[in-house]
Design goal:
This protein has two domains: about 5-80, Orthogonal Bundle (DNA polymerase, domain 1); about 105-270, hpI Integrase, Chain A. Helices cover about 55% and strands about 5% of the residues. The chain contains 14 helices and three strands. The chain starts with a helix and ends with a helix.
């Protein structure tokens, strides 16, 4: 894509106030289709766009989530930025792949944390699980965000550029204090090789995968699994879903429900409402 068009589209995305991560993904999607056809993206026909989408689905076999980011980026460029109508640009409806994440039990989360000997890494994983943080949020934590007097963590500019508070575990607070005394963080609680910079998201993911391997746990996917566990384990413990919604930073309860996956063991212990009636009523 010509640099002139890239700069103009980039300015458009800035005015749309999309997040930095989304902006980079959309710019990459438009740049890649331009490279694929060796033409400026504004000159591509709808058929050429469809050919590129088919290539990614059939040849590259991209996962649904990756395809969706690609589709959204091209839609933002062609419909939003260039203003093409449906006859000039159309994308077939995408049926979302619905996969229920394999949650870790409380025992498995404990086993995972205990497998980590590195104090900073254990504190990081405990913070993700104990407060339901996204990986992008935990790596940006600073000491000033830990409110031990109220036992809360302040999350600044999370997803959707929203600030919020979430709960702070007493056990997590003790781990953070030990980490602080041992490593003396400067600006970022969870720093990278350079103390002046926060730990990268990819490094945090590797920390989680290494812990899973040491604990011999095969269930679940990336570190985001711990956020699902946070929501599900809280609900199983009787926490109101509205509190969970607030702590997770969701605008809609529908989003929170997507994170709730009650374990079969928990469900098997739930009694039918009929069992709460007097025996005489059903005799």
């Amino acid at each position: 894509m010509a640099r002139k068009y890239q700069r103009t589209f980039e300015n458009y995305l800035c005015l749309q106030r999309v997040s930095l991560k989304t902006k980079e993904a959309y710019l990459r999607a438009v740049a890649q289709i331009s490279i694929f056809h060796n033409l400026p993206p504004k000159d591509l026909t709808n058929d050429q766009i469809q050919d590129y989408l088919l290539y990614n689905i059939q040849e590259r076999e991209l996962a649904w989530s990756s395809c969706n980011v690609l589709f959204c980026g091209l839609k933002k460029y062609y419909q939003g930025f260039l203003g093409r109508n449906e006859s000039e640009f159309s994308i077939p409806p995408r049926t979302r792949s619905k996969k229920i994440p394999m949650l870790l039990s409380r025992e498995e989360v404990a086993k995972l944390l205990l497998s980590v000997s590195n104090l900073k890494h254990r504190a990081l994983l405990a913070t993700v699980y104990g407060s339901g943080l996204r990986v992008s949020e935990v790596v940006k934590l600073k000491a000033e965000h830990i409110d031990s007097s109220r036992m809360m963590i302040r999350v600044e500019q999370g997803k959707g550029r929203k600030d919020r508070y979430t709960i702070l575990s007493e056990n997590c607070l003790q781990l953070l204090k030990k980490h602080w005394l041992a490593h003396q963080p400067e600006e970022w609680l969870f720093f990278g090789k350079d103390k002046q910079l926060p730990m990268s998201i990819s490094t945090a993911q590797h920390v989680y995968y290494n812990a899973k391997r040491k604990a011999n746990i095969t269930k679940g996917r990336g570190i985001h699994t711990l956020r699902h566990c946070f929501a599900s384990h809280l609900l199983e413990a009787g926490t109101e879903i509205y509190a969970i919604k607030k702590w997770m930073g969701h605008t809609s309860l529908k989003t929170t429900y997507k994170y709730i996956h009650l374990s079969p063991e928990y469900l098997s212990k739930i009694k039918s409402p009929l069992d709460f009636l007097y025996k005489e009523a059903v005799a």
